Amino acid sequence: MSPLQTLVTAWRQASAKQASLLAAGVAFFLFTSLFPALIAMVSVYGLVADPDTIADQADRLTAALPPEAASFITDQMDQLTAAGAGSLGVSAVVAVALALYSASSGIFHLVTAINQLYGLPPRGWYVVRRLSGLALTVAALAFGVLSVSVVAVVPVVLDLTGAGAVTRVIAHVIRWLVLAGAVLVAIGVLYRQAPQRPPTGPLISRGVVLAAAIWLLSSVGFSIYVETFGTYARTYGALAGVVVLLLWLWIGMWAILFGACVEATRQHIVSDETIAQEARLARERATRARLAVAAEESGEPRGRVDPR
């Protein structure tokens, strides 16, 4: 199947399985899981670093987000880190355990949505599937800690070594390339572990690259739109940050779910609705082709052929 046919079939698969509606539901659960995840990340990161630096690094990580969404997240980070390093260390075990369980809800529903798009029914016990979601949540938390560490460590190393302007530019480019590669790996791991079937193909596939590219480009475009044309602050007032963050999460989840549809198409897993639609379109194309051939044989102009 050509890349264009794969994209068309994946689009039909996403439409047949209501990917946009699933993305909205997953975005809601991720939103409710976001702050427990921040609590867990701050607790873990606070054991090895000064908590006062966490909020500063969060500003850099959220630079690509729309301003309202970035401000909403950083404000929450400021409140969490205001407790200080001592209380973060003491409460780490209990806070991480409770926060991880709460945060796993978003990942659990994301995994459920991906299996829905694959047309795979839930298998195994609920507890086992919940533990699988918890394991992916731990991996996502580790990815978050690693991202913050990369952002935090590179400037410190550059300052200590007295690096020049060119070296700093190269180091910053490499740093963001590493983060981009980490995002690709994270999405690839999700696509391999979420579907309840044996994984096939490479870790970094077309669906993974497409999902990451759509999320990145749409995030930049949405951020520019919110800054330039958006009226969310005037419309929603104090809730503008919540609304913008939910919209950004919805865009990202749609990108990931559409990438999952591309992966399902690549693995020749399509729903009955998509198969029926493909068959109907194939019959329509065949009918038009037969009418065109008949018109040419009878000498009738092609423009007068009625495809119906």
Low-confidence stretches: 302-308
Distance between the termini: 28 Å
The count of DSSP E runs of length 2 or more, i.e. the number of strands, is: 0
Tally of contiguous helical segments: 12
Residues in helix, %? over 70%
What's the SSE pattern? HHHHHHHHHHHH
Beta-strand residue percentage: under 5%
- Molecular shape: globular
| Number of structural domains | 2
Q: What's the assembly state of these chains?
A: single chain
* Radius of gyration over all CA atoms, rounded: 24 Å
Instruction: Compute the average pLDDT.
Output: 75
Structural class of the secondary elements? mainly alpha
Q: Sheet with the most strands?
A: none
Report on the architecture of this protein.
The relative contact order is 0.14. The chain has 2 domains: 3-270, no CATH class; 271-308. The chain is mainly α and 308 residues long. The model is unreliable at 302-308 (pLDDT under 50). It has helices at residues 3-16, 19-48, 52-61, 67-81, 85-90, 92-118, 126-161, 165-193, 206-228, 232-236, 240-266, 272-298.
Layout of SSEs?
Blueprint lengths: L2 H14 L2 H30 L3 H10 L5 H15 L3 H6 L1 H27 L7 H36 L3 H29 L12 H23 L3 H5 L3 H27 L5 H27 L10
Pfam families: Virul_fac_BrkB
Keywords: Cell membrane, Membrane, Transmembrane, Transmembrane helix
Subcellular location: Cell membrane
